[in-house]
Batch of 2 targets.
Target 1
Amino acid sequence: MDLFAQIMFPFKWLVSVIMVGFHDGLSAIGLPAANGWTWTLSIIGLVLVIRAALIPVFVKQVKAQRGMQLLQPDLKKMQDKYKGKTDQLSRQAMAQEQMALYKKHGTNPFSACLPMLIQMPFFFALFQVLSGISTAKASGEGIGAMSVEQVRQFDESSIFGAPLSASLLGGGDKVAVTVLTVLMILAMTASQFITQKLIMAKNMSEEAMAGQSMGQQKMMLYILPIVFGVGGIIFPIGVLIYWTTTNLWTMAQQFFVRDRGEAPKDRL
């Protein structure tokens, strides 16, 4: 087992345990165990568990984003102060003053990416679980907490005629897989774009609009939808369901924060 597989092993187990837990619970209340919608709801349940656990991180993210907005005037003054100075001492002094500003406002430039970074191991774990379904079925093995029978059920389950383990690269009815994949990629990219626009809409001052934070957000506005769009080609349908659901959750959170219209330090 290579290093990456060793790192991902506990995440694969946790992802499969949560999915199997939801699947067993849904089956117990009467949903067909081998039905694609039962497994789809299990994947959505996985999203709800992970995102609910990340709510405290989201609150910190909102506070950090607000802090980045508030420090933009001071950051611009500092940049003007050292404009044109390229000597080592000036660069060191500027870096120290910049870190002091971040500390004062309780933020840093990478805070906006924290929830996504925390989610990535779970995303890759789900990708490994679902992309390995067909191989595990052929060899008569389980995956993580999924039994051999559950692997078989998942491999044979579908929604709208598209198998959950299929992707644009292969598997299932080509038309059904293509249509469903394209629709979910559009939903993923649209929700990501709207979410990023909501984040940017909070930067109201001229200093914030011209600052480093806004530049990073504008970059994410266009880059992330492209990443999701290109990545969607290789993602199994089940992974697309996961990422579309988590993007919709993030968008709803941003609408909630925007509608409250309060600085995070006031209530969050």
Note: Residues 174-201 form the longest helix (28 residues).
Target 2
Amino acid sequence: MIRRKFISTRLLKNGMKIDQAIVDGTGRALIAKGAFLDDFQIEYLQDKGVNGVYIQEGEADPEDLEEKIQIPQYTKEVIAKNRVEDRAKVKLSESVRKRVGEGIQYLYNNTEDSGFEESTRNIANELMNAIFENDAVAVDIGMLKVSDEYTFKHSVDVATMAMVIGKKCGLNEGELRELGIAGLLHDVGKSKIPNEVLNKPGKLTDEEFALMKQHSLFGFQILKEKHTFSDAIMRGVLQHHEKINGKGYPLGVGEEKIHRFAKIISVADVYDALVTERPYKSAFSKRDAVEMIMAMTMELDLDVMKSFLESVILYPVDSIVELSNGERAKVVENSTQYVLRPKVVGIRSGKVYDLAGDLSCASIIIL
């Protein structure tokens, strides 16, 4: 059961979920409602003299939510008749989440450690096991949370998505393991960026942005100095911000010179960054993020983009969505070809909306 509670900013802790938006004088959202607070955001609230905020405690029980919505019996029967389980998704147990979260945090804070490579491979193996344990072919981004600190959560999200995308692209197990390592370490160069630049809540200056753009080069140098990582891993880290039109960084190389690992990591990196709340920007909805990805045909590899769209589940079966026609609906089946348009059943009407296959539903979208 979810409860709303007012709490002094002195008592805020990393990972608490804020239940109000924090805005500046112009109305710009600095911290969005529903964001999981990190140490930087808590310190920001305290420095600005905010005495207290509302937070959320507890979690919504799906059965309670269904009861609250009061799904008619007829609709329940229609849902049961049309419901098709999602394809196998990556599942991380609580123990694995804890080990992976703590492991990646240690690595980013201890890049000089003698066991750096071994620790990285152990974390990649944890993710490999999660993918192959149930022959996972898809990922639900909302279920990946391993840490409340952005850099570490982002690294694991990107690595996991990249491995699932890579599997869809036909990479073998050895290549997937290497890709996972590159995904985990793609932002390790940010350990060389000052925190005041890395977590700046406002727009970066030209000098700060130029420094930030060097993080992939810094990461490459960290790995190169260890003499233990493959060329594929190092190029995945170095080139994950390169674009196929040659307008990326740090080298500005074109499609033919960008390593396959970097092309895969780039798509996962862009998507996860778009849907994640940061001190300087609000999170985009999963739907908007996917549409933005689909529009980046001049920047992202098309084959990788296709594999990404077939690998990510935005609306898991049984989730409740709002339709543009005003009706609330329950998702009953997803389509690998049309990630934004699952089959749903209207809760009030019991009507089946096949958003991908029924032309009469062409004007209806999920909000």
Note: The first strand starts at residue 3 and ends at 8.
